[in-house]
Specification:
- The protein has 17 helices and nine strands.
- The protein is α/β, with parallel strands linked by helices.
- The protein has three domains: 2-151, no CATH class; 166-264, Rossmann fold, CATH 3.40.50; 279-413, Mannitol-specific EII, Chain A (3-Layer(aba) Sandwich).
- A hairpin with a 5-residue loop joins strand 8 (348-359) and strand 9 (365-373).
- The longest helix is centred in the N-terminal third of the chain and has 23 residues, at 108-130.
């Protein structure tokens, strides 16, 4: 067909994202708990990313939804056939972007019409059944576990299957990004009153009693090696990860009877007089440069402040090569690798403001570069304050645009 008439409807049979999109939208509108909250992320992965298997657990959780898939698929094929839709070649992956690229000139409307019809029909049928079902979190977890057994690999949604008493955030050095991530999750757990300890450690020092380990996706394999009995969650950044809310919701359902808060909060273990961040180590309105020069400047300030020895700067650059220290919300927190702790004299934090930003790769722009040298717990309260301050985009904008070092100092120290 593609040779004779320039396109073929057969290229649309498997690639059509409409049926899966309808089911995920139905869960978002009519679902409850984790299935509802995880649906938006799954929609993006499915429709824009073309990874259709993301919706499989949602069907396995409620097998009658196979009728929605059939109805949506059949409606889409009928629409494609009636309108003469087709693609010039296979769209892989089956994302809307790949499909549009494979659409022949003048054939976009029939293709989009078939996708929309399939999604609407699937949504209506799925919504009918979802409204009448329980759809609890345990069913979603069981469905994901079933999919792992069937396919032999992990699903993309957070998987927690047992009571959690201790959560460990692990990064290469255990002094920067993991500390901020621990602070963020600890705050969320405290708000719902969960009796769970949250700490941060270097990836080679994960305690044996860790029940759940959270690490950057590039370090998860190492984390699993060092903590094989714990459950593991991978994240892409420690500051703004959507996985935190999923973890809190899942833990709330698992630990619903445990309401006393005793979360270990290292961020409060600090000296009365702050010497970790000094006003003279807050530099404003620095001209944009590359990330390595920005990291070197932060390292030099740490050296000049008496916090670290000179070799620590090279360790900061080495850490950036392992995995980026950009953690989201226009913030990077360069620090040394774990082995570089021997070069730290005392805990210190320096702040560099780049109004025009510094590129940390993959489209990530840091306007605040915060150099860290951590030993003990003295720096954790400042990292906790930084994590809290950067939750609000308007506050982030103020810190990026301010000409007042006192504002940054008071925000990070006295919050």
């Amino acid at each position: 067909q593609a040779k004779e008439i320039g396109s073929s409807v057969f290229f649309l049979l498997e690639a059509n994202p409409g049926p899966g999109l309808g089911i995920l939208c139905a869960y978002y509108v009519f679902g409850k708990g984790m299935s509802k909250n995880s649906a938006p992320g799954a929609i993006i992965i499915h429709f824009l990313g073309g990874i259709h298997e993301i919706y499989f657990p949602y069907v396995l959780m409620n097998p009658v939804l196979i009728l929605a898939v059939i109805a949506g698929g059949a409606s889409g094929v009928l629409t494609f056939t009636l309108l003469g839709a087709g693609l010039v070649a296979a769209a892989s992956p089956g994302s809307i972007f790949a499909i549009m690229l494979m659409t022949p000139k003048g054939g976009l409307i029939p293709v989009l019409a078939g996708i929309v019809v399939a999604a609407v029909v699937s949504f209506l049928v799925a919504g009918f059944f979802i409204k009448r079902g329980k759809g609890n979190d345990e069913e979603l977890e069981e469905a994901k576990a079933k999919m792992v057994d069937l396919k032999g690999k992990e699903s993309s949604v957070v998987k927690i299957t047992k009571d959690i008493k201790k959560i460990v955030f692990a990064c290469d050095a255990g002094m920067g990004s993991s500390a901020m991530g621990a602070s963020k999750l600890r705050s969320k757990l405290n708000k719902v009153g969960l009796n769970i300890t949250v700490v941060n450690n270097a990836i080679n020092e994960i305690p044996a009693d860790a029940d759940l380990v959270i690490s950057h996706e590039s370090l998860t394999s190492r984390a699993k090696t060092n903590a094989p009995t714990a459950e593991h969650v991978s994240i892409t950044d420690f500051l703004t990860s959507p996985e935190y809310d999923k973890i809190v919701e899942r833990l709330s359902s698992l630990n619903s009877g445990n309401k006393e808060v005793v979360a270990e909060d290292k961020s409060k273990m600090v000296e009365t007089e702050n010497t970790v961040l000094r006003k003279e180590n807050i530099k404003l309105n620095i001209k944009s440069t590359d990330k390595y020069e920005a990291i070197k400047m932060a390292g030099k300030l740490l050296v000049e402040g008496g916090y670290v020895e000179e070799p620590y700067i090279d360790a900061m650059l080495q850490r950036e090569e392992i995995v980026t220290t950009y953690i989201g919300n226009n913030l990077a927190i360069p620090h040394g690798i774990g082995e570089a702790k021997k070069y730290i004299k005392k805990s210190g934090v320096v702040v560099l403001q780049y109004p025009e930003g510094v590129s940390f790769g993959d489209g990530n722009i840091a306007n605040l570069v915060i150099g860290i040298a951590g030993i003990g717990d003295e720096h954790l309260v400042i990292l906790s304050n930084i994590a809290t301050a950067l939750e609000d985009e308007s506050d982030v904008k103020k810190l990026i645009e301010t000409n007042d070092a006192d504002l940054i100092y008071k925000t990070f120290v006295n919050m």
